[in-house]
Amino acid sequence: MRTHSGERPYRCQECSRQFNDLSHLKRHIRTHTDEKPYKCEHCNKGFSRSTNLKAHMRTHTGENPYTCEECSKQFTSLSNLKSHIRTHTGEKPYKCGECSKQFTLLSNLKRHLPTHMGEKPYRCEECSKQFSKLEYLKKHVRIHTGVKPYVCEECSKGFTQSSYLKTHMRTHTGEKPYNCEACSKQFSQLDALKIHIRTHTGESLHRCEQCSKQFTTLSDLKRHMRTHTGEKPYTCDACSKQFSDQGNLKKHMRTHWILSLTKMKTTVRSHLTQGEGEDRQDSPRTHKCSHCDKEFPLKCRLSRHLRTHTGERPYQCGECGKRFGYLSNLKEHMRTHTGEKPYRCEGCGRRFSRPGHLKRHMRTHTGEKPYKCDECSKQFIRLSKLKSHMRTHTGERPYRCEECSKQFSDLRSLKRHIRTHTGEKPYTCEECSKQFGDQGHLKRHIRIHSGEKPYRCEECNKPFNTLSNLKTHIRIHTGETPYRCEECSKQFSQLSQLKSHMRTHTGEKPYKCEECSKQFRQLSQLKSHMRTHTGEKPYRCEECSKQFSQLGNLKAHKMTHTGERPYRCEKCNKGFRQSSDLRVHMQTHTGECLSMPV
Length: 598
Prior knowledge:
Layout: H1 2-5, E1 10-11, E2 18-19, H2 22-33, E3 38-39, E4 46-47, H3 50-61, E5 66-67, E6 74-75, H4 78-89, E7 94-95, E8 102-103, H5 106-112, H6 114-117, E9 122-123, E10 130-131, H7 134-145, E11 150-151, E12 158-159, H8 162-173, E13 178-179, E14 186-187, H9 190-201, E15 206-207, E16 214-215, H10 218-229, E17 234-235, E18 242-243, H11 246-273, E19 287-288, E20 295-296, H12 299-310, E21 315-316, E22 323-324, H13 327-338, E23 343-344, E24 351-352, H14 355-366, E25 371-372, E26 379-380, H15 383-394, E27 399-400, E28 407-408, H16 411-422, E29 427-428, E30 435-436, H17 439-450, E31 455-456, E32 463-464, H18 467-478, E33 483-484, E34 491-492, H19 495-506, E35 511-512, E36 519-520, H20 523-534, E37 539-540, E38 547-548, H21 551-562, E39 567-568, E40 575-576, H22 579-590
Antiparallel strand pairs: 1-2, 3-4, 5-6, 7-8, 9-10, 11-12, 13-14, 15-16, 17-18, 19-20, 21-22, 23-24, 25-26, 27-28, 29-30, 31-32, 33-34, 35-36, 37-38, 39-40
């Protein structure tokens, strides 16, 4: 009767959820206690429900009693079949109450919900990254351990996640669950279907900056770009001929393959006549490496490969005597002597000695970032940049300073740090001869001379010469103060402001005057103080040319010309140019006397 009345008399003491049946409550409680009383006799895996155990048993028996009527795919459980059917119908019954995003699976909705709550209680002990779910943490930990628990039974390839294995299995089964509604063509991956749909919609997401031609896939754009750059990255191992398209190289390779078969035909026949035809390992179809058993379709490829084992470098540079294992490497090296840069960027005219360098440079124009971090989805132009970035997740810092033992995640940061010990400043401004230890600092400095301000605020249109200055400025509009003092909870929009403020608690005064040993909390205070020794007065009044050592003094002086008196007495409304003058005046009202030096 409770199904009609809606009565739910059984309440969970942990989360207050209510149930209309006692057995349902008991089953629910196991989600809090993690109790799994139903054990598999084959692998000892535990389950909280008997139905889950029954479904699991089919993974051992191979039974798949539930069949999809659309594509005939079979499943071990009815719930898996229902979830699968939604890939055909497009149904997404689970909706997020916060952002209205819809999902085909309840588990996907549950994973999505913590993105609104911001809660991440699970922390990685290796790199301190936090996660909203324990399962996410377990997957992440495999990056550190290298464990790949999901193994393909067909080819033994391992994967860190079950979803990757499922996608891979389709290469063996031929399954293509994603169907195009326009032409009924099927695909094994959803991304491939999305790209295909653009052939119907006419949508072109990738545009060539040289000729404005558009392409539906990034790979098509890359291939097209070579018609502008002349790049031919695919080289024939047999004759070193180069091609701009991999398909053209494969066609060309067949000309060598046919010649190879012709030359070896006599040898093959002699083997067959001697009764050795049953052993096909000596067939010209493959050439096996005796060191690692790797096989190659061409003997010339095997010869090249063998140099990785023997260390043979038959190609020598006539200029410096350096040796190379491959002719193509020698050709590229020779350009370091000749200065030849045959690969030219059509966008900016810059030239390069190697096609790979040009290809990498082109990404600065196209915005392409093909290397993606699996952890945070950040993308990079270079593989080396991705590798350096990954260390921010793993915490690895393999580069150590011999002077102070400080460690760094990339070699460039170490080199930059070493200059703080050596005092080396290799980058010089051509305008004012000021020197810098870092090239990025020089670039930012040059904008002072050029007046370039490439970063503009979208709110008020104010331009800035550095991105960091723009980000700091934007907080004026947003009101964001992300840096909080742990002592007094005061918040700041800039990290430098917080650091300066913290010294009011610690009493630290890191900036010391070399003349009189007086110490200051801020660098700007030290600079101002130094002028008392040097007599420098950099602030000049445009009206009377009088000079001042402090900007504040100049501002106060300017009021003698403008007549401005911004500090006003609340008692008698009399105005003053400086706050100190107002404080002295206030004593005429309070009757307080100033203590004068004797």
